[in-house]
Amino acid sequence: MVAALGALFLLPALSSSHxxxxxxxxxxxxxxxxxxxxxxxxxxxxxxxxDVVPLREAHTHAVVxxxxxxxxxxxxxxxxxxxxxxxxxxxHRDPPHPLSQDLLASVxxxxxxxxxxxxxDDLHDDIYTGRLFIQQGERRLTIxxxxxxxxxxxxxxxxxxxxxxxxxxxxxxxREEIDSLRGGGGPGVGGSGPAPLPEGSRDPKGKDTTxxx
Length: 213
Prior knowledge:
By secondary structure, the chain is of the alpha+beta class. The chain has a domain of about 120 residues: Bifunctional nuclease domain, CATH 3.10.690. Strands 1, 2, 3, 4, 5, 6, 7, 8 and 9 form a nine-stranded mixed sheet that branches. A hairpin with a 4-residue loop joins strand 2 and strand 3. Helix 2 runs parallel beside helix 4. The C terminus is likely disordered.
């Protein structure tokens, strides 16, 4: 994603010396199922990050997104690196060393950009697809991005997280079902209350603590 960001930010300089070429046709960001209401891809629902839940038996983690009223939950399964990055953001604490998501955020900031919106567009073969929206002066850039990376950037910059009605209707679950995801994995970070941070990390008061995911 870093390479994609660099290419987009440098595009204006390159375009001044090269004639514009037609862009190749891209796959639509969201494709309604045959016979379904096409509005499922255009209606957007705002979500908030409530938790990061360790799933011990599956050896993975779930980032828990919820609608504003908390009635519907969207779990997104992520690797440990993304889980740790998001957990630090939820706990309002800094990691002992910069993470890859911190590098992405620094690239955006140094190039004069600001993450304004994260969008989860569709679900293909149990894999979420999404986009990252960046404002750079008068330009609005759009980058295809994994939701796991985008969510960490959204929390860092307080950007909105939006999901299409199609994704929420296909993958959303009731709030009561979220406990079944835990499977005895213990409390997460965020909606379940902050967990200790990894040794060497810093909380706002400068104390060393641990995030146990």
